[in-house]
Design a protein that fits this description.
The structure holds 2 protein chains of 2 kinds. Chain A has 8 helices and 8 strands, in the order E-E-H-H-E-H-E-H-E-H-E-E-E-H-H-H. In chain A, the strands form 2 sheets. A 4-stranded antiparallel β-sheet of chain A has the order 1-6-7-8, with no helix packed on it. Chain B is α/β, with parallel strands linked by helices. In chain B, helix 13 crosses helix 15. The model of chain B has no long low-confidence stretch (mean pLDDT about 95). The chains are: A alpha/beta, B alpha/beta. At the A-B interface, helix 4, helix 7 and helix 8 of A face helix 2, helix 3, helix 5, helix 10 and helix 11 of B.
Amino acid sequence: MEKFISHTGSALPLRRSNVDTDQIIPAVYLKRVTRSGFEDGLFAAWRSDPEFVLNKAEYSKASILVAGADFGTGSSREHAVWALQNYGFKVVISSRFADIFRGNSLKAGLLTVILGQSDVEALWSAIEAEPSLEIKVDLETRLVSYKNQAISFDLDDYTRWRMMEGLDDIGLTLRKIDEVENFEEKRAKYKPKTLPVLS
Amino acid sequence: MAKTLAEKVWDDHLVRSASGEPDLLYIDLHLIHEVTSPQAFDGLRLAKRAVRRPDLTLATEDHNVPTLNIDRPIADPVSRLQVDTLRKNCQEFGIRLHSLGDVEQGIVHVVGPQLGLTQPGMTIVCGDSHTSTHGAFGALAFGIGTSEVEHVLATQTLPLSRPKTMAINVEGKLKSGVTSKDIILAIIAKIGTGGGQGYILEYRGSAIRALSMEARMTICNMSIEAGARAGLIAPDETTFAYLKDRPHAPKGEDWQRALAYWSKLKSDSDAKFDKEITLDADQLSPFVTWGTNPGQGIPLDGVIPSPQDFTDPEEVSAAERALVYMDLKAGTPMKKIKIDTVFLGSCTNGRIEDLRAAAEIIKGKKVASDIRMMVVPGSARVRLQAEAEGLDKLFLEAGAEWRSAGCSMCLGMNPDQLAPGERSASTSNRNFEGRQGKGGRTHLVSPLVAAATALRGTLSSPADL
């Protein structure tokens, strides 16, 4: 995973709540076996509308997505995170994220930032007034700043540290593998095994 | 200290718990399928890592597979490559796989329970949000993303922050024609699609106790639609009777040992939930969705709400958008809505009891002439069982299609899709825009409502027949 310390860029205002992962990337785009190339599926159904915000020239350089509440509900597909990343987004801001999407994003290096709904609304208005508005999202200070505004956000210390160091979660767990072995020795013997095939 | 059921299962799987870092939980069973696993296996190869516990891992082909002509190569080359990739990965890493055509193939959440691999007190994960289904057995089961799939493959553990717990008490007795699907749709309408965020739900109360295991699975399955990663039900005699003698259930003395542990798996009477809500089962009637998220549901006897009925501005605009997408007008009675396709199947309602209940209504009657009804069993075993009982003939004689097992039109990843503008009554779990095919419109219903709707052509309950 790439290190994430700070990102500065312009933003795209997505004034919709309950954007589920089927909207972020419909199922028919999930057939690839790689982690790249999902950008063509991003918001695929909505993109056929020329008025959809992603199609507007003034937002073509946006790297921060500012979305309505309950972003990323539904399917656990991490492809939704990859589609956003493949398209060029580094940060998503919303007042509420679905649990699985948020977990996936922070594992894959897409920073999801939770701000209050009124801060999101203010951000939407500021972006719409000035689409090239520069927004800085800083993990070191846990601040979203633009113009003379600076809004703090919460992210637990552990996740922040892992993202800033660009650490691989698996590598971290493998360092403690003796504890996993100890646990396995104490597991109940009646717990089921999938092998050999019994049915 | 008094604990809830979820806390007990959580604590019994703690490999490591230290302040300032997430808990490390041991995973008892990892289910995989073709769509969310290929990138995880690539990651393992790249880092030269093995699968730590192939003997706690099971793969099936379900999301992407056709439900017709399964004896022929998959027609879509991209789908075929994805399925072939799973087969190669399972062979390379020594994982048991139930492929298309195998008698144990089917939707991963139908296969686990029917094999007896899903047992009380286990931790179960899968790269699929409907893994919450397995919570019906008192297991802590939840969906994960592909990064986490790779983590479980490599370490058989997951780092996780402890969620809060919510009790959902459903007391009373369901009226005839009301099912567990109606219970869960009513719960989601009550707490909203974000109401369960950050929580593990525990469904309790006399109405839950009275349900069969399959009906309980329907409820736990849709926990994610309320925003909760997991939902569970304490195991009881119904659970134990379902498990006894299943292929992977403990046998002999092991059964007694397991039973002794399972019997302790309930929330302590003085345990504190972070939140508690109550629902009156006696008051419930068949429930359907009118909008584009599973929280936009009302009783089938109701009329489509107006956006102005909502107070939250987000809900007002969501309702406005939903009515436009669904091409519906506020004030229209739900029962006046004309349906094009009825889909009976999915990990929510594709088990044998669902097919029996629908077949009982369809028996000897004809599907309305302008309706397409697709019946897709949740697994090859369910299909065989239904055929042994003659249910396939009842559906076929009524004019319905009888398919092979898979996720099918629940997510429209294979050729089973709605055409743009087409409207379905579906026993599945999501009515998102385009979920069942681009431009398709979905009403979520119970198997009973699906069957009655197929006969009448408009959203209907069995009482309307």
